[in-house]
Amino acid sequence: MWMKDKKRIRFQKAKFLESSKELGNPGRGWYHIYPFVIQNPPEFSLEETRSCILDISREENLVLVRIDIGAFQSCEIPKEALETVSDIFHLFRVSQKQMIVRFTYYSKGRGMEKEPQSIDLIKKHMEQLGEVICKFATDILILQGIFVGSWGEMHHSKFLTVSDMSELICSLYRAVRGECYLAVRTPEQWRNITDYKRAEQGLKKRMGLFNDGIFGSSTDLGTYREGTREKELMWQKYFADSAPNGGEVIAGERPVGYRQAAEEMQSMHLSYLNSSYQQRQLDHWKNERVEEPGCWKGLSGYEYIGRHLGSRFVICRVRVSRRRVSQRYLEVVIENHGFSGFYEEAELFLIIEENTGKTVLRNIKMNDSEWKSEKRIVLWIPLSDIETEATESKVFFQMRRKRDHKVIRFANEGADDRVLLGICKYR
């Protein structure tokens, strides 16, 4: 149906149907773990790692890079070791993988045996590694943990008092100059740290959660205190949405179905999950089939969960509307059907393709804080913004990550790097 503007524009809207396709957008999805032990001589080959990345993680945008620095539990990290860390980060940069990074003093459990005796030495290691991290900050989605605990997971450590945890994560925040998101293991740790009287300003909005025990027990293997799961999930839903959250799933007494899993992951605002652990739970989802009507029918539970990790924006309505008496607008309604928001600065554009062959690009103002999970975004675009000298034009919508102009794809049928909003004819 054609909608006629009194001035000169007639607009025919496109059809807007949700798609179930994988979008491949940054900052979200499945990941594999790549462990490294930094010592002399190194226990790994970067060339072999590169082959492994190409073989195992070809379809994944994310990797978890776990770096064991236990060889330096009683000394500063030498220059050669820092260069090795830099080489590792560079490998994933050229492989076009966004990194989740975790440092640990022992990657085989029993964390207290290998961590330094002094908190000051841990802070020094953070300071040293911060210089390397900052060089690759644009390639890093998030830093997990504060170096201590078994596997760097913030359990089984002598540095888990509120004051020690707060001191360490504030040191890490300063070391990376606030350029990276940080994550702690439990909601209780998050609250204790952010409520601490000497917490760094700005830390609260840059800190998420990594839950490596999802569904493993009623407490997610100690993530929540006994009997608090429902309460903590509600807290996460409303207060843990300012930074990426992720982790690993564990099959407890019996695997959890994809539908229940998706509901809880929505509350957790999950952006990323381990694609290889735990296999029993993952296989359960792979063997499930979505039966509800719509675009998801027939897909596996694993596909359903994977495609909802992170943000998933869908344009659901476009119409000409009057917001002011004297002016008409193009009203664009966007919904986020993903588990989480989009946590990087983005830009919105109108792409106007005239029937003369000319293409016009126009920037649209956006409020980054509105693009969260389960949110509806309404954009009001003056019709004058799509007015050209041509007699007819196609109007497209596009979203890009600001720092590198990487396209953020929309989950609409027929959309690729851009979405058709409609066709304009000019009188």
Give a verbal description of the structure.
The chain has 427 residues and is an alpha/beta fold. It has 2 domains: 2-20 and 311-426, Immunoglobulin-like (Sandwich), CATH 2.60.40; 29-308, TIM Barrel (Alpha-Beta Barrel). 25% of the residues lie in helices and 28% in strands. The strands form 3 sheets. The chain has an 8-stranded parallel barrel, surrounded by 4 helices. A 6-stranded antiparallel sheet has the order 1-2-17-16-13-14, with no helix packed on it. It has a 3-stranded antiparallel sheet with strand order 11-12-15, with no helix packed on it. Strand 7 (181-184), helix 5 (187-195) and strand 8 form a beta-alpha-beta unit. Helix 3 runs parallel beside helix 4. The longest helix is centred in the N-terminal third of the chain and has 17 residues, at 119-135. The protein is globular and about 75 Å long. It starts with a strand and ends with a strand. The model is unreliable at 1-7 (pLDDT under 50).
In the CATH classification, which architecture of the largest domain applies? Alpha-Beta Barrel
Which H/E pattern describes the elements? EEEHEHEHEHEHEHEHEHHEEEEEEE
Class per helix and strand makeup: alpha/beta
Beta-strand portion reads 25-35%
- What would you report as the Rg, rounded to the nearest angstrom? 24 Å
Count of discrete structural domains: 2
| Largest sheet report | 8 strands, parallel, barrel
- What is the helical fraction, as a range of percent? 10-25%
Q: Can you tell me the CATH class of the largest domain?
A: Alpha Beta
Record field, number of beta strands: 17
Helix count from the secondary structure assignment: 9
Distance between the termini: 17 Å
Instruction: Identify the overall geometry.
Output: globular
